[in-house]
UniProtKB/TrEMBL annotation:
Annotated InterPro entries: ClpP/crotonase-like_dom_sf, Enoyl-CoA_hydra/iso, Enoyl-CoA_hydra_C, Mitochondrial_ECH-domain
Entry's Gene Ontology molecular function annotations: hydro-lyase activity
Record-given protein name: Enoyl-CoA hydratase domain-containing protein 3, mitochondrial
SUPFAM superfamilies, alphabetized: ClpP/crotonase
Keyword Lipid metabolism in annotation: yes
Keywords for the protein's UniProt record, in alphabetical order: Fatty acid metabolism, Lipid metabolism, Transit peptide
Family: Belongs to the enoyl-CoA hydratase/isomerase family.
Function comment: May play a role in fatty acid biosynthesis and insulin sensitivity.
Gene Ontology terms: biological process: fatty acid metabolic process
Record organism: Rhodoblastus acidophilus
Length: 261
């Protein structure tokens, strides 16, 4: 029998849903799954028809982090470990650098590198039953790489609470921490995430790409440099046909027609 693909892709009017497809392993991020995710993100970045990405998980969980069984089966081989963590870092950065917005659609658990995946996404919607944790401290392997994304998305005290305790937090707590954008009933999760993705997909793709890149770039700059950088970004953005079309449509009280230029 042919093995099921590690990652599923579904396209719907500019919205691409990528589903982690290792339900029997709670979508643990094996080397193969990370490679599939990296390749899919590269394809989406080059696809003008793709406007927004949703990352979801098959089965009972969103993502339980790295595949510990695979780690042990590889006998913690240093070459494998180095390749695994390097690839994981590449995937998380690819999400940030992707020219399309990325939404995490979370149900069940999102732990360790799974929580890292949520934190790396631009937006995150979670079902009421979702739970989040960076539990590495409980097994003697501190969640150092998940810490990078986590500490850039929640407050320092909240990040340290998760990292030092390893405890699961519920969806309302994740919302309060700033890790996710909304908590919705499980039955409505897919529909609400898709509706929001379609709303974003209706915007100018060029403007979305400019804005996402600028958001992450300015966040790493001192205040004065951030204003200098974004001032130049806005000036360049104003030269785009979509910006002039959008302003004209607003003033003329009509629906804009985006060209992506």
């Amino acid at each position: 029998m042919t093995e099921a693909p590690l990652l599923l892709r579904a396209d719907d009017s500019g919205v691409v849903t990528l589903t982690l497809n290792r339900p029997q392993a709670r979508n643990g991020l094996s080397l193969g799954l990370l490679q599939a995710l990296r390749d899919a993100l590269a394809q989406i970045d080059a696809d003008p028809a793709a406007r927004v990405v949703i990352i979801a998980g098959a089965g009972p969980a969103f993502c339980a982090g790295h595949d510990l069984k695979e780690l042990r089966a590889k006998n913690y081989d240093p070459a494998y470990v180095d390749a695994l963590f390097a690839l994981c870092a590449d995937v998380m950065q690819a999400i940030i650098h992707l020219s399309k917005p990325v939404i995490a659609r979370v149900h069940g658990v999102a732990t360790a590198a799974g929580a890292q995946l949520v934190a790396s996404a631009d937006l995150a919607f979670a079902a009421e039953d979702a739970r989040f944790a960076t539990p590495g401290v409980n097994i003697g392997l501190f969640c150092s790489t998940p810490m990078v994304a986590l500490s850039r998305n929640v407050g320092k005290k909240q990040a340290m609470e998760m990292l030092l305790s390893g405890d699961l937090i519920d969806a309302p707590t994740a919302l309060r921490f700033g890790l996710i954008n909304a908590v919705v009933p499980a039955a409505e999760l897919e529909a609400q995430a898709l509706a929001f993705a379609r709303k974003i997909a209706s915007k100018s793709p060029l403007t979305l790409a400019i804005g996402k890149k600028a958001f992450y770039a300015q966040a790493e700059l001192p205040l004065a440099e951030a204003y200098a950088y974004t001032r130049e970004v806005m000036a360049q953005n104003l030269k785009a046909q979509d910006a002039r079309e959008g302003i004209g449509a607003f003033l003329d009280k009509r629906v804009p027609v985006w060209t992506g230029t």
